[in-house]
Amino acid sequence: MEQNNGLLIVLSGPSGAGKGTICRELLKEMPQVKYSVSATTREPRPGEVDGLHYYFRKKEEFQDMIEKEELLEWAEFCGNYYGTPRFAVEQAIQAGNDVLLEIEIQGALQVKKVYPQGVFVFIVPPSLDELSQRIHNRGTETKEAIEKRLQTAVKEMEYIKEYDYVVVNDEIPIAVEKLKSILTAEKCRVSRKTFVFQGV
Ligand code: 5GP
Questions:
Q1: pLDDT, tens digit, for every residue of 156-174?
Q2: Cβ-Cβ contacts under 8 Å for 178 (sequence gap 6 or more)
Q3: Ligand 1 test: best mutation among 54, 102, 142, 148, most atoms within 8 Å of CB?
């Protein structure tokens, strides 16, 4: 018999790289993977629902979560705070469920320190032009915010080497397939397995 903890999958990459879409598709195809809903001080975008896409919190509430050590990691990104509630993640992993975090790099590096056995995947757009186009097309950010996100994206690319895998998001279905393969392989790692043989 096999007993395993769930996988902690950490997905990062520049804003507009397509992480959100890839996550949604992966969760559809692998329903056993649980999505970790982050807390943020950012304003909701049209259609975003509290508790589903994010826990939308005031700055003081977020500060309170930090002080009470309720966050596994947190970071400031483009003027807003983002963080991963610790409890749900730890509970799911211990119960043997896989958990997906879609977080930016500073946060991912904090997770790597406390949980190096996580699987760290960096999603990149095919080019910077394509990235710019995607953020414009999304139409949810002001011109200044887009500029800031693009500048951040260039800096972020330097951190690829901190990750275990890189997936170029040329086409969503192919990128999702690659991610699924990564997870399947990671689950087969001998180092993750504890075999308990009954009667031995
Ligand atoms: P957005 O405002 O576009 O939803 O997210 C901006 C950035 O924050 C994205 O790179 C996203 O991955 C990241 N992010 C979302 N949730 C978290 C979180 O809990 N922690 C950290 N560190 N980053 C997050």
A1: 889 999 999 999 999 999 9
A2: 167
A3: 102
